[in-house]
Amino acid sequence: MALSRRTLVLAAGCVALALVPPIAALTNQPFYLDLFRRMMIFAIAAVSLDLILGYGGMVSFGHAAYLGIGAYAVGIPAYHGIQNGWLQWGLAIAASALIALVIGAISLRTSGVSFIMITLAFAQMLYYLGISLETYGGDNGMRLAARSRFGGIVDLREPTVFYYVVLAILVLFLALGSRLVESRFGMAVRAAKSNEARARAIGFSPLPYKLTAFVIAGGGGGLAGALLANQTEYLTPDFMHWTRSGEIMFMVILGGMGTLFGPVIGAVALLLLEDVLSALTAHWQIILGPILVLVVLFAKRGLFGLLVGETRDG
Amino acid sequence: MPLMLALVLEQTLNGLQYGVMLFLMAAGLTLIFGIMNLVNLAHGSLYMVGAYLATAFAERTGSFVLGVALALPATLLVGVVVEVIALRTLYERDHLDQVLATFGLILFFNELIAIVWGRAAIFTSVPPFLSGHFRVLPGLPYPTYRAVIILVGAAVAVLLWALVTHTRLGMRIRAGASNRTMIAALGVDIRLLYTLVFGLGAALAGLAGAMAGPLYSVQPGMGESILIQVFVVIVIGGIGSIRGAIVGALVVGMADTLGRAFLKPMLATMISPPAADKAGPALASMSIYLLMAAVLFFRPEGLFPARSRS
Predict the structure, then answer these.
(1) ipTM, 2 decimals?
(2) Which of A45, A200, A289, B78 has the smallest set of CB atoms within 10 Å of its CB?
């Protein structure tokens, strides 16, 4: 049965991720803790993109912008001595959701290829804005003074604690996401994707639904950005670079778009691939590029579809 | 001539020159989109290839003009090879696939160039016979090389217009843009037409890249910063429209150049100079995107939307 196989894959993935810290500790390879935490952070970003890309058909080529906004929402308060994590992360989500609202309100007036180019251009604009923030390091970026503080509840300076915080957020985000796509709201977004005219004909205007989804995805990206700033303890405008947007998009496709869980596998696979290739040669991108082309041409179904033997294209 | 006026005129000419570069890129990109319905992110890579090949040929032959002249057919050839090997299969795919696959091509080309020529920027100089200034108006000297770029761009625009409106190939290009299936049914070899159009676009991008060499630094990834501005150009102008590409390129070229030159001093008259020092460059680098947002707010299809395609 496909459903049980799917549940099996999900449970196995969850257990595998939860087992990374003890295994890393046993084998004395703290590097893997770092790598997998990074993967999960990008997974959150990729899942949030899948909400609009896979389910809403909105090809946003500027998702890295929210990573940057989230990171700066942690970095800028920290620079001024405010280290309260609730405040920083709340600001990260709120600011990126607000900017997603503005970008979405303008970009969703168009569709198709214009939409792709506009979201890309807006992200590029924010990238240049980041470069011009001289106080916060300009194009060199700046060190994060300290990781976010959460009173006595959790201590992110502890690598394992930070790891499980990220894992918990990822699981929570996935649970929330799967509730969302199955809800009436999710149905409306998917209806707008498959046929906008029909959606209109059965009596609802797709735009508010699409815009709301766009804002939610932006907020998710912002949260991932806040985590990423804590992960690297350094933030630069490069978080918003357009190649980063391309990478997040590729994670979604590689894992399987419109599957919600697929992008997690996509993020793990891409970062693993980059890690392996970059150990092989400094010119690893010359291998990654053609792999990307081949995946798009021949393996559109995604790794998740391969694993669970079904596709759940929203 | 008053100094301020001369400065404004000079920057206006610079804006025109940058607009010409953008137009050379935008014309190919918009034709390729209009006819093959292909979003080609790797168009910027062809610009980079043109710049590197022109530099390499100029070194070998010792002549800048010969370098540019050889880079044109060479970039065209690279474009045709890329089209035949990788892009041809993408025409029937959706835009998402095209974006991702051509994104993969960008990674490949940037790395290939880095392997062959290294990651460091290459600087080339303007050839001696073009390196002087000439007087556009009394009291207004202007670099000859930039003026030549403007003239070349204008000539290409006229040639392109003549090609599209007065030749059989142009007729087919226009027919292909309005209804691809129909002209295939009428017996036109559509694959050959696609390859020709792609080659033409590649050659135009290569020309822009070759001429850019002495003005901007030649380095891996140089294609992407201009590519994203070219996107802004064709979104403002209306995707698929050559006329839109011309207008959009001039508008963006002017806005970007004049913004960089004058936003800071203008702001300084309104807010404190230190604040203007910070806000000016930020606002200048964002100006074309704000302009695009404004245009889209009023005209979501761009200024000159191409007639509906089927």
Answers:
(1) 0.84
(2) A200
